[in-house]
Amino acid sequence: MIYVDVDVKREGEIKDVGDKMFKRFKQMVLSLERNIKIEAPVKTSLLRSSIHHEINEPTSADDTYSAVVGTNVNYAPYVNFGTASHIIVPLDKKVFHPGTQPNPFFERGIEITKKEFGLI
Fold it and tell me: Which SS3 state, helix, strand or coil, does residue 110 take?
């Protein structure tokens, strides 16, 4: 499983400012989810369709906005980070697997979102 945690400290107690910040925060989280989905490789579409977000609204003026964007597909880390070479023993013989190259779709989605929101 892979998850990206996003936390933003809520500044001040003015409700209108807080509401505007939260709206912008939600836009950023939705954009992050969309960009990660766009960057995800598609073979069966299970990985792409499993990417989701969860937003937790602040409960007080000093609380923190938090969100998680991720997937519960167990092979997602192997796709994103790649694998080292290893031996596979299917039945009665050993097979050398050279490993897989990383496909850092989460990182690409994060970088695209940062650019969209002027964070880099």
Answer: helix
Distance CA 116, CA 67 (A): 18
Host H or E run for residue 9: strand 2-9
Q: Nearest Cα to 39, choosing from 111, 103, 112, 105?
A: 105
Q: What is the pLDDT, as a whole number, of residue 65?
A: 77
Q: List Cβ neighbours of 93 (8 Å cut-off, separation of 6 or more).
A: none
Maximum distance among all Cα pairs of the chain, rounded to whole angstroms: 68
Do residues 36 and 51 make contact, with C-beta atoms less than 8 angstroms apart? yes
- 25-83 residue pLDDT tens: 899 999 999 999 999 999 999 999 999 999 887 777 666 778 899 999 999 999 999 99
Could you state, in order of their start, the residue ranges of all structural domains in the chain? 2-116
86 phi/psi in degrees, rounded to 5: -160, 165
Query: CA 112, CA 35: separation in Å to the nearest integer?
Result: 7
How far apart are the C-alpha atoms of 98 and 83, rounded to whole Å?
9
